[in-house]
Amino acid sequence: MIMRIFQVVTRPGKEEAFGRFFHETAIPLMKGTEGIVSVLPGASRPDSPREFSFVMVWKDLDALKAFVGDDYKTPHIDPAEAELVESRSIKHYDLVET
């Protein structure tokens, strides 16, 4: 399984708008995506009000590529969130099952 960690830093002053997008659009979309085993959304905290993240566990690399394409190492964003986001990052790991 593949663990994918996606992090976003919003533009200053766009925290509330991104928060709405995150809760109303992004979380439901990811939870309903085929090939995802688990979704752990992380909302901003008072000490980091502009930061949001997703930890996703994908069945395998093929499932991930079916969703984002062959360029899975590049963080993709929805056009609706592009104006809200200052930066984004993506990391992938092999999930270690315990």
Structure description:
The protein has 98 residues and is an alpha+beta fold. It has one domain: Alpha-Beta Plaits (2-Layer Sandwich), CATH 3.30.70. Helix content is 26%, strand content 35%. It has helices spanning 15-31, 61-68; strands spanning 2-10, 36-42, 51-58, 85-94. A 4-stranded antiparallel sheet has the order 2-3-1-4. Strand 2 (36-42) and strand 3 (51-58) form a beta hairpin. The protein starts with a strand and ends with a strand.
Question: What is the succession of H and E elements?
Answer: EHEEHE
Helix content: 25-40%
How many β strands by DSSP?
4
Shape: globular
| N/C terminus separation | 13 Å
Protein name: Antibiotic biosynthesis monooxygenase
GO molecular function, one term: monooxygenase activity
Keywords: Monooxygenase, Oxidoreductase
Organism: Microbaculum marinisediminis
From the structure above, extract its key features.
four-stranded antiparallel β-sheet, alpha+beta, single chain, 2 helices, 98 residues
Walk me through the topology.
Elements: E1 2-10, H1 15-31, E2 36-42, E3 51-58, H2 61-68, E4 85-94
Antiparallel strand pairs: 1-3, 1-4, 2-3
Summarize the structure.
The chain is α+β, with helices and mostly antiparallel strands and 98 residues long. The protein has helices at residues 15-31, 61-68, and strands at 2-10, 36-42, 51-58, 85-94. A four-stranded antiparallel beta sheet has the order 2-3-1-4.
